[in-house]
Amino acid sequence: MKRIIPIVLIGILVLSGTGVNAVSKTESSLRQLSKFDKYDMVIIAPEKFSSAIQPLIDHKNSYDIQTILKTTREIYSEYEGRDEAEQVKYFIKDAVETYNISYVLLIGGRKYQLFKWHVPVRYSNVDDGFMDKQILTDLYFADIYNEDFEFEDWDSNGNGIFSEWVGDNPIDTMDLIPDVCLGRLPCRNKQEVIDIVQKIIHYENSAFNQSWFNNILLVGGDTNPGVGDPFPYEGEVDCEWILQYLSDFSPTRLYVSDGNLTGPDDFISAFNNGFGFVLYHGHGLQNELKTFKPDSQETIQVFHNNYVSDLTNVNMFPVTVVGCCLTTNFDVGIFDFLRIFKNLGKYHRFFDFKYSCVSRCIGWNMVKKSDGGSIAHIGSSSTAWGETGDDNNDTIPDGVQTGYTSGLCTEFFRIYGEDEKSILGEIYADALSSVILNHSGRSDRLQCKCIQEFQLIGDPSLKVGGYPTI
Q1: Which residues lie across from 181 on neighbouring strands?
Q2: What ranges in 63-181 are assigned the alpha helix state H?
Q3: Structural domain harbouring 112
Q4: How many domains does the chain have?
């Protein structure tokens, strides 16, 4: 029988409304935005971030990515919907139909450490029976249309519970295919906006044809000890598999089995050398990465929020892709125990109390760092799932060919290498679409969950590797 295994590090591993047919309140609101007949990208953010975002708009326009800003205040006053998230989604639909928008960038996360949002979020109710009963998902905002080309509200039965899935049976039917390329920069204050805008501008202006970009860092160990033959070290083999798509890249391997990965110092030292991509497969939490030693229950810490300040890869920022749990769960805060106590029905175990009470998730911490870290981070906001071994005896690791989280990571690099796409959001959206269509994403509960939680923290219009010097 196929073994489907949660790629999550938890205590046991360490220790042994009614639907609304909303329309624009102001039908001409988009037409009033500017003189252009067509735009490529819309940025959605609170008004207080506007001045900090303007340099990014100017930069994108200079590379013919025609970009506009729409504030959340404008959206809430001009569009109807049952809540703020649906109002935002109706605006995106209007922007697609009016200006043929391809990219949507949400700039705004939680308001400081509070439980309010600069830009709203949507929670999916695909319960995998393992951890959170709700998961954070920005795919909701990208999946604009259903298969009949009608507005996709993820609430087909109109009961106000979005993406509802009980047991093996989906309650809501969902299209899931992204109709726009969407990413989020979950900034909590204006300074974070200033820093990430400068980082994106510098990357796109300077990364092209730099030797560091053609390096890739591969990091992994024995994700699920004692299983997986003939590929027992899943984290390592899943990393190794993607090299067939990256013939122009020089790999640096940090694997536990060969002694190159013994702790955070190894990761930090390697990371600071500069890479175009970093791929990690293993276990994760909101604030750290860990994996197992070969055939052992002993873990190795790979990286932690406490060490982000040690990343000194100035102007050599990678796109980081991780096949593990929780690193893009940007709905965290140091006072989260208050929210969890209030919503006990949405959580399964004390585990959630401890690891949700961190200032920021590790994915965003690495991206927001101005003088190091990543230019973008792609990973899961909740429990990641994968497969082990080679059940069909085709000599291909099941983890890289059967969807789920490891399959999404693999598809990302296949699309970049084989399809030769270089816009981050397009690569990411195509990877999602591929797994949805080829691996029963609409009918398999765990596939659906993995797809919904696989988040892009970054600019969806980002030119991977930068623009050629003019």
Answers
A1: 103
A2: 72-78, 84-99, 139-142
A3: 21-170
A4: 2
